[in-house]
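Lab notebook, bench 4. Continuing the backlog of folding jobs that were queued last week. Each job is logged with the same field layout so the records can be merged later without manual cleanup. Today's entry covers Transposase, a 645-residue chain. Filled in by technician R.K.

JOB TYPE: sequence-to-structure
TARGET: Transposase
LENGTH: 645
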Amino acid sequence: MNTIFKLKPGIFVRHQGERYIVVSLIDLESVLCRKLSSRETTKLLIVELERDSEKASKKRKEKIDLGAVNSEEWSLATKQMAQVKALFEMGRRQKTREEVEKIAKEFDRSLPTIYRWIAKFEKDSTVRTFLKEERIDKGSSRLVPEVEPIIAEAMKRLLMKQEFGTFGDVYLEVKQACIKQNIKAPSVSTIRNRFSQISEKERVSSRQGKKASKQRFMPTLGEFPGAEHPLDVIQIDHTPADIIIVDDVYRKPIGRPTLTIAIDVNSRVLMGFNLWLDAPSVASTGLCLMHALMPKDKWLKGLGIDISWPCYGRPRKIHTDNAKEFRGTVLGRACENYGIDLEQRPRGSPKHGGTVERSFRTYMRKIHAAPGTTFSNVKSKFEYDSEGKAIFTLKEFEYWFTLYITKIYHQKKHSGINTTPLARFQEGIGGTDDKPGIGELEIFADPETFRIDFLPFYERTVQRYGVLIDHIYYFDDVLRMRVDEPDPENPKNARKFIFRRDPVDVSVIYFWDPDSKNYREIPYAHLGRPPASLWEVRTIVREQNAKGNSQVDENIIFEGILEMREVERLAAEKKKTARRNQQKRQDHEDKRKKNVTAKKMQLPTAILDYQDNSNSSEDSVSSSDGFLDEDDLILPFEDIVVNRS
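JOB STATUS: finished
OUTPUT FIELD FOLLOWS
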């Protein structure tokens, strides 16, 4: 299934059931289209267009869950996509038969196969396109485990040094070692695939030394390398916002929220953000990315804000720091599938995240003018009563921050680019009289698939009771036929299936059905249980373990959750921690609800009276603004690394 389509002249789209062909892009919000049935030309809004699936519906490629793909197959698919992408970008006239033959020889495929790959890439430029379909003879022959260390040792001696040899040399040595051990030797292509899994940085470091690797792969101060156009590079990071917020019920202080932002390096526009009462996690990162890469019209309408935020689309690269929520299989594979490079800067190298850090300083400087600010440090705060002055709930602060971004920050000249961020973004897409833009937007066609792709996944066998995850049982009739199902590759073992779960709502898990190639929702085995978040479940488990109770069961967990909620309800008026936990739970509940149209909030007068009283541009902000001293950090954020200039 094609999850991305490029919005450019000549493609077919649908609008209210009618088929159209795109004639030209008018701006970032609308296109000129011609209706196929009447040949009538009309202007249509981009957010109302759908991918034309008439041809795709005739022969639809089976979906594949990213978590179910083994590392070797994933590595080969990404390598194939990279080579085919290079051929595709050459164009038909520049691409020669010799270049196609070279790729065909490398992957041991025929010329027609490579041409089919190019055609498939043009329709769906994701890694899923290159993942092989399930084989009829699946499980018949595999590489024996003893071969892996032989290949690794041979590559280390012959390919990972300054006087490196060839794949043929490695193959001969591996073959001789396999003959001695009476095991089947791998092919040359297998050795090539293993070598391709070694990063270019590791190869250069091993062959030329760490200094050469550092000079080649570490960006220098100045312009971020590769960010020549909008959506080339997006930087994402978290920080505690310099403001105290209040709860919805008592309007009393509950502490700082975590702000996650995604900034476009070329234009400096804020692509999207997420406010979160929990510590940074994969979940908050996924929510920020979804907000950043999807159109925001419906979201803005729900907030009651009457200005456009036309910044969305697929980026070429996402750049992060080395925090744990940015590492791992879930985020990496999801980005790879959509053709997005996920790059992490090394520890102790703040210069690599300069754009996002300067943006944080700019935003925090503005927050310092809002009621309830904590400022950047104790010295700046003086005797200001942050908790006593706090007036914003989490939703109200989200509204306030959105107003600032869309009506002030995006519209004000930025000294680093000598224009406004929004103008730079629009010019980079559409072009100007003397400089062409990239000319097309790559849109994610299925937001729900995008969301699930960024959820954590688990591998579990199905038992008679269903599935057990974090002491909680899940069951549905769809699992009944999967009980004790043998592994097709190793019938002696039970088959493991892929399950995904949203940490905000653990009342349901998503079962990847390998037959229908679709997700099925699996509820609690005991349907009377209340919805809960992973934060609540693990809090109770930790409390029970601290009491010496290692045999925690589901009944204890949900009894503990209900007791915890009642205690917090009674203590909320007096204790900030209890109010924060209640508000965190309400925030999770709000995120559970789907397809609910938000009403415009009745905000305090101070929000509506907010004025832009600063003429400073981003790069002219004092380097001390927007950062917290370690003594200022409150407990929920004690594990966050605070940026300092």
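OBSERVATION: The first strand starts at residue 4 and ends at 7.
SIGNED: R.K.
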